Amino acid sequence: MPTALTELSAHPIVQAPMAGGASCPELAAAVGAAGGLGFLAAGYKTADGMRQEIERLRGMTGRPFGVNLFMPQPALAEDAAVDVYRERLAGEADRYGTTLGDPRGATDDDYEAKLALLRENPVPVVSFTFGSPTAETVDSLTRVGTCTVVTVTTAAEARDAQEAGADAVCVQGTEAGGHQGTHRDDPQRDGNGAGVGLLTLIAEVREAVRLPVIAAGGLMRGAQIAAVLAAGAVAAQLGTAFLACPESGAHPLHKQALTDPLYARTELTRAFSGRPARGLANRFLREHGPYAPAAYPALHHLTSPLRKAAAQAGDPQAMSLWAGQGHRLARQLPAAELVAVLAAELAAARAPSTPVASAPAPSNPAASPPAGTAGPGPFGSAS
Question: Needs which cofactor (predicted)?
Fold first, then answer.
C-alpha cells in the first residue's frame, strides 16, 4: 500500500508541479531537503524527458517526491475558431520575428508512455491534472506503492476521484496561478467570478468525499497554511510562492514580474493555451484573451514559439506569466529558507494565543444573565 501523504514530509507544505520548466529537479530537491514535498511537472515533456528529470532528482536527494501528469485531451472537433485566432496572431509573429506553431499537435501529452515508465520505476506520489484517471490506472500505481492524487475544482470532480480509488485530492481554488485543473473545459464557466474560492471549496469537498485534502490556491504565508489546515486540509500546495526562488526554473523576467508594480493584478485567460489559466495581466493577455477560443492544447502549440521568442527578446508582455492572486507576496528566498520561514509562520499561527483577561463583574447584578443561560455570542448573536 502507498505511504500516507502525511508521512512523506516533515511539514505540510507541498511545492506545486508547475509545467513549463519552473518545477525543475533543483527546486524539488531543495524543498524536499527542507522538509516539504517537492514535485516534478511532467506536462509538456516526453516520457523520456520525464525519466531524465526523475533520474536527476534522485541523484540529488533521497527524499520522497511527486510527479504530475496531464490527462489526455479530446481532439478538436472544429478547427475554424483556431484558424481565426491564428490569423489574429499573425502580427504578433511578425513583431517577434518568429512563426506560429502547429495547433494540430499531440493531445495526449505522451500519457500512456509516462504511465508505463512510472509503473516500471515507481515514485512516491503521482498526481493528475485536467481529469481523473481510470480505476485501473489508479490500481496499477497502488500496486507498485505509489500514492495517487487528483486535482479537483468542484465537489463533483472530487467524487469522481474517490470513485476511481485515488488516495487524496488536491483542491484548487480559483485563486490559484496557472491552469485551472477542471476535468471538463466548459466555456460557460469562464470569467473571473466563475470559480470557487479555496476555503469554500475545501468545505464543499470535505462534505462530498472522505479523501484527504491538499489545499491549493493563492497561498503565500504560513498563516494561510494554518487557515486551510484548520478548514480540514492535511497539507497546503504552493506554486507562486516558489516561483521566485533561485532554484526555480522560471524565466528571470517571470520572477521579476511577480512583484513588479507594473503587474497589479491577475486574470483568468485562454489567450496562451486555450484553457482558463491565471496569469499576470500583460499586453498579450489583455489584447487577445477576449478572442481566444476554448481549444486546448491547440492554442498552447500555436503560441509556444511566440512566447519563447518574446522571452528571448526580453519582453514579458507576450509571455505567459502564470501567477496566483497572492503574487505580490512573493519572496525571493532560497527554497529551503522559504520552507523554513513558512514552517515558522505556520507554527506561530497555530500557537495558543495569550488568554484574554476576564472582564470585571458587572456592578449591577441584574445585568448578569440568569444561571444556566448564555450571554451574547460572536458579533452579538446568541451563542
Answer: FMN
* DSSP-assigned states of every residue in 15-81: E---TTTTS-HHHHHHHHHTTSBEEEE-TTS-HHHHHHHHHHHHHH--S-EEEEEEPP-PPPS--HH
The Cα–Cα gap between 29 and 51 comes to 16
Q: Which CATH class is domain 1-73+108-257+330-350?
A: alpha beta
The CA distances from residue 159 to 165, 173, 201, 231, 310, in Å, are 10, 17, 13, 19, 41
Model confidence pLDDT, tens digit, residues 8-47: 999 999 999 999 999 999 999 999 999 999 999 999 999 9
Sequence-distant (≥ 6) Cβ neighbours of residue 237 within 8 angstroms: 14, 15, 16, 170, 214, 215, 216, 219
Burial letters for 269-291: b for 16+ Cβ neighbours within 10 Å, e otherwise?
bbbbbbbbbbbbbbebbeebbee
Domain residue ranges of the chain, discontinuous segments joined by +: 1-73+108-257+330-350, 75-106+259-325
The residue-averaged pLDDT of 304-315 equals 98
Contacts of residue 380, defined as CB under 8 A and 6 or more positions apart, other chains included, come to none
Q: What pLDDT score does 340 carry?
A: 98
